[in-house]
Design brief:
Elements lengths: L7 H17 L2 H19 L2 H19 L1
């Protein structure tokens, strides 16, 4: 699998869509939605090591913002 990333403009569009979707959901459903989204994206990535690295990157990002 090639190592590709989204262009910044596409990443911004992704963030906006994610924020809009989360805002439209009841708070009680946000975790379920994020878990389902993560699994759907992991399935599309198709590379366990990249998925695990992304999980770790996200975890570290959350820890840094809550420190």
């Amino acid at each position: 699998m090639t190592d590709t990333t989204l262009p910044f403009a596409d990443l911004e569009r992704t963030y906006e869509r994610l924020a809009e979707t989360l805002d439209a959901l009841p708070e009680a459903q946000e975790r379920l939605f994020l878990a389902q989204l993560a699994l759907a994206l992991a399935h599309r990535v198709g590379d366990l090591e990249r998925v695990m690295a992304a999980i770790e990157e996200a975890r570290q990002g959350v820890e840094e913002t809550s420190a």
